[in-house]
Amino acid sequence: MTDWQKLIVRPAATVEDAIQIIDRGGVQLALVVDDNSRLLGVVTDGDVRRAFLKSVTLKHPVTEIMNRSPKALPIDAGHDAALALMRTYVLRHIPLID
To answer: Residue 44's beta-bridge partner residues?
Structure first.
């Protein structure tokens, strides 16, 4: 399990900020959260690549490229539920939220 707090980016952040979080976090993922730590979306390496192909720049807001409907599970969902969801959707990570 990763320290999720090092993966946080705020909605007002830029695409460049998200890339820095993704790079430092080492899990190819940034979590976009509001001031109450509610998950608003996620940004992956793939989201960044697709954004660049659409001429989005580093200075655009991260909210323009984030996945607003990420797959997530309740924090008490358990290992088996997480693995099943990850296999179904071919995901590397699943945010666990409370």
So the answer is: 29
